[in-house]
Amino acid sequence: MNDERNLLPYWLSAPGTLAMLAFVALPLVLTLGLSLYPFVPGTGVGEGLTATHYLDIARDEYFHTIFARTFGMALLVTAICVLIGVPEAYVLSRLSPRWRAASMVVVLGPLLISVVVRTLGWALLLGNEGVINKALLALGLISEPIKMMFTFTGVVVALVHVLVPFMVLAVWASLQKLDAATEQAAASLGAGPPTVLARIVFPQVIPGVLSGGLIVFALAASAFATPAIIGGRRLKVVPTTIYDEFLGNLNWPLGAALAAVLLVIVLAVSLGANRFVERRWKQVFQ
Amino acid sequence: MAFLELDGLVKRYGDFTAVAECSLSVAQGEFVCLLGPSGCGKTTTLQMVAGFTAPTQGRIVLDGRDITAVKPNQRGLGIVFQSYALFPHMTVANNVAFGLEMKGVPADKRRRQVAETLELVHLAPFAARYPKELSGGQRQRVALARALVIQPPVLLLDEPMGALDAKLREDMQIELRALQRRVGITTIMVTHDQGEAMTLADRVVLMNKGRIEQLGRPFEMYEQPNGRFSSTFLGKANVFEGVCEGGGVRVGELPLPCEVGAAAGSIDYIVRPEKLAFANGSALVRGRVEARVFLGNHWLFQVATPLGTMQLTEANAGLPAVAEGDEVGLTWRAEHVRVVPRGA
Does the pLDDT at position B215 exceed 50? Predict the structure, then answer.
């Protein structure tokens, strides 16, 4: 019997598997390898194996600040996306079919536009000579432009805008499985709408919040275009630092080491959060 | 004064009329079943009582208070949903405690009341379980406990047995009946199952096409259906279109027995299958047995007669003498016949 096992599934999945190996696994292994070579100023990548880059990252305050900023930013963006995305998805799911279709286009529309273009749009809004400051100055609400470009807040605002559709989509998928009668049941037991949302709806869409949160967190921590344009050189995050190491300082091994550390931390946080949430709310995960 | 009064309830969705007119008085402690085929407006009526659907017209008065415009979370009614709608992320005890918590009952009193109510529905050992870890019947009892624990003035049940298999359904019906009597709570249940309605209800409200077709105690309604719909929805019936003139009834050219007093005009002639018997001597109609079906406690015969196919049931007392293909005569008594004016 075993000899006659159907090999078709393996053949069918082979192209995908090979593409994954060639374009994801192999570059990762190469990057990891590169991070272990020494850096020789002037020449670039030297001979032999060394862990100096990892030790530098572990010791140097400069890198600590950048990593702290990157993950602080990613966590904050994730939290804001949960706060905005969950109610947004809930409202969407309660609209009449016609309004829902129109609203979905509005929510997902930004995904059709390049991140760079959207971020440049934010730059136009947030700059000292930008739309927001000009409007506030014209209204006489402020006398000096508020500094929003090249600030932590500016980057967070722009990233939230870019990433919130992912949260909406994930929570939306969870809401589809929600039994609307549970909300009615809670109402019949005396719960007002805010209580129903917090105690009944939210806990049941935790799986969607989790998957949305993981996507948003990973994308925020590894975002390049938005921090590069809104944050600039002064507000470095890990991805922009990697870019600078590779193309500015030509220190490829250090850049590779930074990339490896970023990957490991994102993976560790994601897996940790996943395990924690699935255990804490195990009843809503089938 | 009735405890719960539905006064001329109407619900329209655009051009579609879900409930054309529903007026109903429910006494305190009464168990009323809204019975009807799907789309008859029974669920919409229940939803209006619950407050989830606003009536287009009409009033709902509970214990002298007009609650038509009161929000569902202010009505304080106990509701058991068809899907049970248990909170999957909460234990059985927390599900039941939710309503008390919303009322601001202190924690120790809450625990005591939850324990008592779980005891009432025989679920005390399952307090720490989650809904997913329970069987269908147990879930239904959690839903019941959750609705009863807040001591609502009225209990609303929306097809509560729909998700249970036949055997369990019978057990739960009897249990529900006993529980309702013991607690003495005014109950309105929606069902499409006529057997369930007859088992449980003090009064059955038979609905069709958004209107109340007939209203009465199960036995009265079964014995005195007021038309073709009632007689065939509640139990089985042989119904023939006929004419009543000069105090006698004719179906086709055949004169048939009926009690005196029927109004002249076109009528429905209704007689239940169990009221029919095979005639040894003079028969009212003659026909040929098309089918003989064994149904456990009784036998069902289908007889092709000049009036049309007639159904006859007979208690199971061994293998019947009449077999398929036999020519038989049928007879019944005038007092078992209902003659109802047609189109009324």
Answer: yes
Residue B98 to residue A191, Cβ atoms within 8 A: yes
Which residues of chain A lie closer than 8 angstroms to B74, CB-CB?
190
Task: Look at A182 and B86 and tell me if their CB atoms are within 8 Å.
Answer: yes
Are both B215 and B293 inside the same structural domain?
A: no
CB B314, CB B320: distance < 8 Å: yes
Residues in chain B within 8 Å Cβ distance of A191: 73, 98, 102
Whether residue B211 contacts residue B178, with contact meaning beta carbons closer than 8 Å, is answered with no
Tell me the angle at which helices A252-280 and A26-34 cross, rounded to the nearest 10 degrees: 120
- Sheet order of strands, B265-271 included: B254-256, B248-251, B238-245, B265-271, B337-341
Please name the residue ranges forming H helices in B71-150: 72-75, 92-102, 107-120, 136-148
Give the residue on A whose Cα is nearest the Cα of B89.
Answer: A283
The domain spans of chain A are 59-284
pTM: 0.83
**CA-based nearest distance B150→chain A, Å:** 8
Specify whether B42 is located in the same domain as B107.
yes
- DSSP code of residue A228: I
**Is the CB of B81 less than 8 angstroms away from the CB of A185?**
yes
CB contact under 8 A, B81 and A284: no
pLDDT tens across A5-53, in order? 788 999 999 999 999 999 999 999 999 999 999 998 888 888 888 999 9
Tokens of B189: 């249940």
- Angle (CA) B319-B321-B323 rounded to 5° is 90
Residue A148: what pLDDT? 87
The predicted pLDDT at position A109 comes to: 85
Domain for residue B63, yes or no? Answer: yes
Cβ-contact A110, A104 below 8 angstroms:
no
* Residues sharing a CB contact under 8 Å with residue A206, sequence separation 6 or more, in sequence order: A174, A277, A281, A284, A285, B89
CB pairs under 8 A between A and B: 71
Chain B residues lying within 8 Å of A185, measured CB to CB? 79, 81, 85-87, 146
Q: In B, what residues contact A, Cβ < 8 A?
A: 50-52, 71-79, 81-83, 85-90, 98-99, 102-103, 130, 132, 146-147, 150
Query: Regarding the domain delimited by A59-284, which CATH topology (the fold level of the hierarchy) does it fall under?
Result: MetI-like fold (1.10.3720)
| ipTM of model | 0.85
- Please tell me whether residues B199 and B284 are part of one structural domain: no
DSSP state of B319: S
Domain membership flag for residue B112: yes
Q: Does A13 touch chain B (CB under 8 A)?
A: no
